[in-house]
Amino acid sequence: GINAEYGGYGSALAWGSSPENNMYIPEELLIEHDVPIMADDINCSEDAGDIRECEGNFADGHDCSRGENLWLSCSDEKTADWVLAGAGLLKLDGDEVISGSEGLLVVHFSDRNSDGENWKAGTVCDDHFTNHSADLVCQSLGFRAAENWGSDPENFEFIPEELLENHGIEILIDDITCSENATDIMDCDAKMFEHNCGRYENLWLKCATNDTDEQWGIESGHLVRLDEETGEVRESNEGLLAVLLTSTSGESQVGTVCDDYFNTHAANMTCQAIGFDYVEDWGHHGAVDYQFIPLDMLYKENVTTVIDDVQCDEWDTSIMECEAKVLEHDCSHEEDVWLRCGPANDDGDDDDDDDDEEEGNVIEFSLGGANFNFNLSKIKFRKFLY
C-alpha cells in the first residue's frame, strides 16, 4: 500500500512477480539494456507510513533472478485524509444561515488529498463536554469565553432539525475531553466520524465578546500590477489580488490573499465579485517570479498577507458565502494569489470608464460591524482537535 502511495496513487490493487512481470517489460529487453535489480528484502513494519521508512538492501547486492521482479497495479483513488479545517456558531436568520457569537456549533472537515475540493460539514455531540471545553471552543473562535452552552432543546432553535436532515448534516465529533491543564482546544481529545449520539445532543454555545475589540472587514478587492514605464501600480484584469480592509475605528490596511485552500471555484467567484465574468487563469505569486508586483516593493511598502484559508463549498454561488481567516495567516508572499479574469461586464456605456476606474471595482462584501456574518469575516476558523 505505502509503495503505491509513494508513487502518487491511493493504494495497491494487486501485485506479484513472475509470470506477469514479463507482460509489462520483456526480460530480453531488460537484459539488452542491462537494467539491474536495485532493491531486495524490502521489509516494512505495521507502523510504517512511507516506503522510505522500510528496511531493505538498496543497490547493495541481492540474491534474486529477473523472474522475481515486482509488478504492481495501483488505484488512482487516494484514501481521504480528513482534517478539521474550520468551525463556527450558526443560526437561521430568515432564509439565511449566519454566524456569530451564539449558535449551533458546526465544524468543517477538508480532505487533504483533494486540494480542498472535498468537504464535510457536521455538528458536535455534547458527551463529556464541560464549561472548560466551552471556554476553549469560544476562545478558538476568537471570543473571550463561553457565557452559556447546552444541547436540547435550544439547539433546534438555532438550526431546525429538519434543516439539518434535509442537507445531510451529520454529527462528526463526539466525546470532547479536555483536561484541567488544557489551554487550547487543540490540546483536547475527541472522536471524529464516530459517535453514539442523537441530534438532540448537538452542542450550541453563546460566547462572550469584548465590545472594545476592533473588527476588520473587506472594503474592496483589486487586481494590481506595476507599470514599469511609469512606476505606478495600476488595476487590470490580470494581476496580484489585493484587498483593502477597514476597521471599526476607521483604520485601513492593504494586503494580499494566501493561496491556502484557494481553488478554481473561489477564483471564479472572486473575478465575478470584482466585476468580471469568469476566471481564465490563476496561481500563486512566486510561480510567476513576482511579475506583477516585485517582492522588494511589497516589503518596502509593508504589504502583508491579510486573508488566508479561503474555503468555498462547491455549492457556493458567491465569494461572500466562503469562509476565511482575516489578519491571521501562515504564508509567505510566494503564496500570494494572482488572477486573470475574463472580460469585464460591459453595459455598453463607455462614458462611465473613468468612474469605474476611480471606484476601483469595489467588492460588495457584507463584512464587519452590523453586517458581521458567516462570510469572509473576523471569525477565525482555526484548526483544532486533530
Task: Give a verbal description of the structure.
- It is globular and about 75 Å long.
- It has 9 helices and 20 strands.
- Helices cover 15% and strands 34% of the residues.
- It has helices at 2-6, 21-24, 27-32, 131-140, 155-158, 161-166, 264-274, 295-300, 353-359, and strands spanning 11-16, 39-43, 55-58, 71-75, 82-93, 96-99, 102-111, 119-124, 145-150, 170-177, 189-192, 204-208, 216-227, 232-235, 238-247, 252-257, 279-284, 304-311, 323-326, 337-341.
- Mean pLDDT is 79; it is low at 347-386.
- By secondary structure, it is α+β, with helices and mostly antiparallel strands.
- Strands 5, 6, 7, 8, 9, 10, 11 and 12 form an 8-stranded mixed sheet that branches. Strands 13, 14, 15, 16, 17, 18, 19 and 20 form an 8-stranded mixed sheet that branches. A two-stranded antiparallel sheet has the order 1-4.
- The longest helix has 11 residues, at 264-274.
